[in-house]
Specification:
single chain; mainly alpha; Hypothetical Protein Yqey, Chain: A, domain1; Arc Repressor Mutant, subunit A; 2 domains; 7 helices; 0% strand
Length: 148
């Protein structure tokens, strides 16, 4: 079992003992997402894959918050925002924009990419380093601005 998944399981037990219903529900959802992929693909998840799952869950909730606010449902937006903060407890420290730029510049130098045609190879190097620690959309825009 990956160290991150083990930490999530441990936190589930802590939340259950503290009788934090909302936290227990969300952590169970996180573990269920991991289990679903393990069963579907018949693999044991590593930390990188668990981070990708958690990153996706945060992104989904951010989209929901935006839609709830546009729909005038601040109460539901607050619930989603609280869930985002719980999920982010399990994610590593976020990268700053400068750190993301450094990763991208190193990847560009490593691949020798000089135009947009090399974006795929640059992103292949950047994604594992930024996944779960930064916004992939922002990273993609930075790659485009450097290669563009």
């Amino acid at each position: 079992m990956s160290a991150l998944k083990l930490e999530i399981s441990t936190q589930l037990k802590v939340a259950m003992r503290a009788k934090e219903k909302a936290r227990v529900t969300l952590i169970r959802t996180m573990l269920a997402e991991c289990k679903k992929i393990e069963v579907d693909e018949r693999i044991e998840l590593d930390d990188t894959r668990v981070l990708a799952i958690l990153d996706k869950m945060v992104k989904q909730r951010k989209d929901s918050v935006k839609q709830f606010i546009e729909g005038g449902r601040q109460d539901l937006a607050d619930v989603e925002t609280a869930e985002i903060s719980i999920i982010q407890e399990f994610l590593p420290q976020p990268l700053t924009e400068d750190e993301i730029k450094d990763i991208i510049e190193k990847a560009v130098a490593e691949t020798g990419a000089s135009s947009m045609q090399g974006m795929g190879s640059v992103m292949a190097i950047v994604k594992p380093q930024v996944q779960g620690r930064g916004d992939m959309g922002q990273a993609s825009k930075l790659v485009k601005s450097i290669l563009g």
